[in-house]
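ARCHIVE ENTRY
Sequence with per-residue tokens
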Amino acid sequence: MRIQFKTSYDHDIRLFPDRHSLIVYGALIVLALALPLLINEFYIGEVTNVLIWAIAGLGLMLLTGQTGQASLGHAAFLAIGCYTNTIMIEQGMPFVLAFPLAGVLTGIVGAIIAIPALRLHGIYLAIATIALSILADDIIVLLEPWTGGVSGKFPDVIRLFGIEIERWTMPVRFYYLVLTVAVICTLFYRNLLRSPLGRAFAAVRDSEVSATAMGVHIARTKAMAFGLSCMITGWAGALMGYYAGAFNNETFSLVISITLLMMIVIGGLGSIHGAFFGAVVVAFLPQGLSILKDGVLGGGVAIPGLETGVFGMILILFILFEPMGIYGRWLKIRIWFELFPFARKDMFRRQKSYLKTERLR
């Protein structure tokens, strides 16, 4: 059993709760750096895909999991980040400037859109963001001189400090680039949670009335959450464009937005780990189903809607039996082993509660 002995209030806002966590995450970083030496280039590409989805998941997690604002329109911000990065590089801007600026501009657009949209709550906000995702498709087609319309665009080779990086011919270099962005976004998210702004996000998520009573400016906090969420999502969109090698108005569809939301629910809402666990499911589920289908039915047999159906079934099972997602299940298993033999089943019994203050909405 591990016991955390806290001697200061600063212990609650440490970057790592204890030395054991520091060692574990340090070992994960070392493993990630050594991964190209352990697996072939095909699986390096799959792990890169997981990291890109995880970055997008972190963006949506900041808004939905941390602030409690449901969004089904984040595919639009993936598209904004992707097209903005590609257009700026085509205009002669180096990648080292275009890539960060693409995320910042996406965040600014998201904050502006949030001003009217975040006056809505729950299902109404979700509907508004769905409309945004559908509208982005039409805007991309209308802005054909810049976006290429239905023909789409082909991103150039990344040139970073004299080094060329390309997803297909140099997958290891591209993997290290995506890994660096993923680590930076994760550290940014973690430090944000430790800040007063991160505490304000959690207060708004739990009860807007109570947060207002504590002096939190609800509209400003929501707008900042939306902007920061869209900034991270914009970076993920730029990397998705490089990973795909070509993109058009159909690349970032409403299905991507729905997949993102289901991904963080399955992984575990409100946690950084949930974004990565959900990304593993999203990235490897199609490969696993393909291998299983070929083994059972043989090659060449196509089953329309198989991936969507299985993914939806997994989501339903998690909502019914494990609302905290994969990370929640892992926490329960870890706590059970740490408290053994004193752990009891009722420790994890779900409590049905209702905040009376939310009736004033």
